Amino acid sequence: MRGVIFQCLFYGSLTFGIWTALLYIYIHHNHVSNLEKKPQGPALIWSLGKKLQQQIIHDDKLIPRSRVRFERPDEDETAEYQTFLKSGKDSNYSKPEYIAGFLKYGFNAILSESLGSERDVPDTRNKMCLQKHYPANLPTASVVICFHNEEFNALFRTMSSVINLTPQHILEEIILVDDMSNFDDLKEKLDHRLEIFRGKIKLIRNKKKEGLIRSRLIGASRASGDVLVFLDSHCEVNHVWLQPLLHAIAKDPKMVVCPLIDPIDYETLEYRPSPVIRGAFNWHLEFKWDNVFSYEMDGPEGPTRPIRSPAMAGGIFAINRHYFNEIGQYDRDMELWGTENLELSLRIWMCGGKLFILPCSRVGHVNKPHFPNQPGLVKAVTYNNLRLVHVWLDEYKEQFFLRRPGLKSVAYGNISERVELRKRLGCKSFQWYLENVFPELETSKGSQ
Questions:
Q1: Which of 383, 391, 434 is nearest to 280 (CA)?
Q2: Higher confidence at residue 209 or residue 42?
Q3: Is 274 exposed, middle or buried (0-12, 13-18, 19+ CB in 10 A)?
Q4: Is 336 within a domain?
Q5: Position 141 pLDDT exceeds 70
Q6: What is the distance between the alpha carbons of residues 397 and 39, in angstroms, rounded to a whole number?
Q7: Is residue 266 part of a domain?
Q8: pLDDT at residue 314 in the model
Q9: Is the pLDDT of residue 357 over 70?
Q10: Residue 144 CB neighbours (<10 A)
Q11: Range(s) of the domain holding residue 400
């Protein structure tokens, strides 16, 4: 009997060991294959198009598969973006520590720890941006950063980059909102490390899990700066990033502006330049990055000219604080995160505001790969989609339901307050939005 038990234990352990080894080999093989496929030198920047077409989690929100179209630039334009930051040393991607960190945070946590709390990033702005000058007397900014179980060093690099690359007289404060994190290093260790910023940072800890949307509202309610700037917790701002945003809002308080978002590779943590692109979406209400028309970069400003954007990605933008309140903030009845970026984008355009991307403002962002089968997130995005559809799309909501007929009878809560907000603001129709802001959406309704 004892021999039988011993044999069972032996073969069970052997089987477990074999499967574990196969898992490591599979992950290592995939990573090596991906590295071999990555282009080197100047061609590396054009891999962004492929990156953006993959499913990723962007600014703590789901961005489904994108359809991006880019034209290859002139050779001299490519040369402007040849310098990349080579981050740290190569890691052994078959190690259990790498796998554990990746599953925990969604990117290379070992390399993030080796980089530490701050680093220099390449200046990815077009050379014409270096000739721009901004007045010293600009509005002040409150930077709101929400996080939940973020990797400690990535969070600290976000804050350090803001502190180090922002003139102190325009940085009113950084407001950190902890949405019920349960990792130990985000408790007392974080409190202790924040002391070096000498009161420039306010830390708010939610008493219950609120989700990104309501956490941002909590942060905004504590802000005292003239402008609210929302950042994700795994960003690194670039040189002269804030001045263009504040200057645009100072000239027009109803102008909402976004920086151009440079991708930070989730495996190598390399900071890479982004081409000039704009935010868009399809009839499934899936956000996507889209190409910019060549005529939009004509004229004396060239590729530094502000770009009209039908939609924002969501995680990274600046808005006048009083205008944010006037226009209705976020729909606080939306769940977790997802779709709030599209809802706010439509509200800005349809209710008298403007939404632009400023290529001379650059912010890096870790593009995390998306892991499917997250039922809580899928449910929240569906619920939020329906709230947007029934408040803002008018008769065009049928275009959404043609693609998602099963959602016609799904509950979406009470929208009476948002409907009343639209009436009070005197907002235009969705037909106006299609005709004046995003006509490409209507012409594509047969194919999306």
A1: 434
A2: 209
A3: buried
A4: yes
A5: yes
A6: 42
A7: yes
A8: 77
A9: yes
A10: 25
A11: 375-443
